[in-house]
Design brief:
With 246 residues, this protein is α+β, with helices and mostly antiparallel strands. It has 5 helices and 7 strands; from the N terminus they run H-H-H-E-H-E-E-H-E-E-E-E. InterPro entries: HotDog_dom_sf (IPR029069), PTE-AB_protein (IPR052061), Thioestr_dom (IPR006683).
Length: 246
């Protein structure tokens, strides 16, 4: 597909559909990821919400312009980040969900996370082209994965009508590295990590979030539903939603 052909809406939609299906199938083929997705789906039904939503991560979607080009194009290769999905429990019911969020009536004006989707997870396959040291993911890439997972919180809530459409930017991102985040090899294939992001506090246009990066303990299978995962890195951040220009 040529660059010009790739940018037509029909071709982009088909490319995104194929990639989403391929990525979901890939993670479902890995026992600990499949168990995690099933476990999360079961948990989602107990939280007054619908079943699990599993999608291609928003920043992975190919667009006719170069928005999100880092994740959708630059790192979207077999030896960098070949597979990447987002999943979360269904949108919580809310009496205000039928109306558009406003400065005075939306949940963020009340300083509470009630009514939001407060937890989003991503599964990411890491190849050797994101190495810092050999076999270890570059720290800047790890921070990018955390920032991306946190950003999915806003994408999901915007789509659900829980958040105004204005852009949200990272105010700060403090990261703690606890253990190496392992990458895969050209022959052995990528390694996989789980990133879990949570919305912790909302005050006006400021959003406090936390996230953890986890991987299989000692390179093992991570157990049933991801119970064998260990924490590799964690972060806390504040995001700020900017006002639309008049």
């Amino acid at each position: 597909m040529t660059s010009k052909e790739e940018k037509t809406p029909a071709n982009l939609a088909e490319a995104n559909r194929v990639q989403e299906a391929r990525d979901i199938d890939y993670f479902r083929s890995i026992p600990w990821c499949a168990a995690l997705l099933l476990s999360s789906s079961t948990q989602g039904r107990s939280e007054n919400s619908s079943s699990l939503s599993i999608t291609q991560s928003d920043s992975r979607i190919l667009r006719p312009n170069l928005e999100d080009a880092l994740m959708s194009r630059t790192l979207n290769s077999p030896d960098a980040i070949p597979h990447y999905i987002t999943f979360h429990s269904g949108v919580p019911s809310s009496s205000s969900s039928s109306s558009s969020p406003s400065e005075s009536s939306s949940p963020q004006a009340q300083g509470s996370t009630h009514g939001y989707v407060t937890k989003v997870s991503t599964l990411v396959a890491l190849g050797p082209m994101v190495n810092g040291w050999e076999g270890i993911c570059h720290g800047g890439v790890v921070m990018t994965l955390i920032d991306e997972a946190m950003g999915q919180l806003f994408t999901v809530n915007k789509r659900a009508g829980k958040l105004r459409k204005e852009m949200v930017f990272t105010g700060y991102l403090n990261t703690r590295f606890k253990k190496p985040v392992r990458t895969g090899t050209e022959k052995g294939g990528p390694s996989v990590v789980l990133v879990v992001a949570e919305l912790k506090r909302v005050e006006g246009r400021k959003y406090w979030t936390e996230a953890v990066v986890m991987g299989p303990r000692d390179g093992g299978a991570a157990g049933d539903g991801g119970k064998g995962l260990e924490e590799l890195a964690s972060a806390e951040a504040v995001f700020v939603q900017v006002r639309a220009k008049l």
